[in-house]
Amino acid sequence: MVTRLVLVQKSIGSRPVGTTKFNYMDDFNDIKKDRQNLEHMPDQKLHQVISFIKSGIRILGYGLLLYNLPVAVGVLIFSEAIGIIEELV
User: Fold this and answer.
1) What DSSP designation does 19 have?
2) pTM, full prediction
3) Of 47, 29, 33, 40, whose CA–CA distance to 83 is shortest?
4) In the chain, where the domains are located
5) Cα separations (Å) of 46 from 36, 51, 84, 85, 86?
6) pLDDT digits over 17-62, tens only?
């Protein structure tokens, strides 16, 4: 029972080793540093738009599997290329 309690306690919300509660909260509240580096962050809106386009092309590719296998495979490979571009944005 003691082992189970320790495992549950660790999984619920343990802090990183070597930090106190107050030190951990200072790191959590230091959002100014993150907000100053927003120009280095990826563009979330563009990532979402490319993801929706990729999903539409995939749906089209799977629908084409019923009619023309070589074209469907080409469309699905193209959607994977768009997925690579999506991750680079």
Assistant:
1) -
2) 0.58
3) 47
4) 42-89
5) 21, 8, 14, 11, 8
6) 565 555 555 555 566 666 667 777 778 899 999 999 999 999 999 9
